[in-house]
Specification:
D-Maltodextrin-Binding Protein, domain 2, 3 domains, Double Stranded RNA Binding Domain
Length: 296
């Protein structure tokens, strides 16, 4: 009798961006493994509570916990997330089986370029990191919260102001025509993992790990693992605006203390081509400790 290939059950949020990311992963898995993929839609607390700032309801992890639970409970085989939403502390029972090839990691402004914003203009963003970075360059700007899906956020551009978004989100939805300015990484360091999709499965699930090999991008994995080592060293309880991004052989980092209007940033040289990955991971952790000491 012919072998029956069991479908891969993929847990994802139901937003347009999350669904687009999930479908890219699903197509890659199916094309290489021959297994069909069934989507398991999950509403997270981050999606349900649109009326409060992210940092007040759990910050980074609010978009992933329920999706992860579907895999741990056996309702799904894999969980797909924006890697920047994934906490640095590994989830018990789960393994990151793939990091997809990274899209453009930059932040962008929609509504106006930075230089064109008038003095005291309003910028909408739910990210404390983005606010701290923009305030370091333009202390005159006024900031307001921004929550919701992509379409909702695009409808909330303040009059005479701008909103901040991830370029990758607009790329995957083919909406880059809305971008007024792509912010340079050197001055506006992206969130750890930004532009990449992370795929988790149950630890020890060899069949699913084999299927995920189709979407795991080795260069992106090495770079994001270095970024996540930097974040992990700061501690899972760190609530400060933090950013880390590997661009080629350089690690760009940023850490701020908004209440005291202070921030520190640095660029660290890594091994050529990521040849010494263990050394790069150690350097990322050392850099995190150094940044904390500099910030005081």
């Amino acid at each position: 009798m012919p072998t029956v290939l069991v479908p891969v059950r993929l847990a994802t949020r139901g937003s347009r961006q999350a669904m687009a990311q999930a479908n890219v992963v699903a197509t890659a898995i199916s094309s290489v493994s021959g297994r069909s993929v069934e989507l398991v839609l999950i509403e997270t607390s981050g999606d349900a509570r649109q009326d409060v700032p992210l940092h007040s309801i759990g910050g980074q992890g609010v978009f992933v916990k329920e999706v992860q639970r579907a895999v741990v409970d056996g309702r799904a085989d894999i969980a797909v997330h924006s890697a920047k939403d994934l906490p640095s502390e590994p989830a018990p029972g789960l393994t990151i089986g793939a990091f997809t090839e990274r899209r453009a990691p930059h932040d962008v402004l929609v509504g106006s370029t930075l230089d064109a914003l008038p003095d005291g203009a309003t910028v909408a963003s739910g990210s404390v990191r983005r606010r701290a970075q923009l305030a370091a360059v333009r202390p005159d700007l006024r900031f307001v919260e921004l929550r919701g899906n992509i379409d909702t956020r695009l409808s909330k551009i303040p009059e005479g102001g701008a909103i901040v978004m991830a370029r990758a989100a607009l790329e995957i939805l083919e909406m880059t025509d809305r971008i007024a300015e792509t912010l340079p990484i050197e001055r506006f360091v992206p969130a750890v993992g930004q532009g990449c999709v992370a795929v988790e499965c149950r630890t020890g699930d060899a069949d699913t790990m084999h299927a995920l090999a189709a979407v795991d991008h080795a260069v992106t994995r090495r770079r994001v693992e270095v970024e996540r080592a930097f974040l992990a060293e700061l501690g899972s309880g760190c609530s400060l605006p933090v950013a880390g991004h590997v661009d080629g052989d350089r690690l760009h980092v940023f850490l701020a203390e908004p209440e005291e209007n202070r921030s520190v940033s640095d660029v660290v040289e890594l091994s050529p081509g990521g040849a010494d990955h263990l050394a790069d991971l150690a350097l990322a952790r050392t850099t995190a400790s150094t940044m904390q000491e500099r910030l005081g």
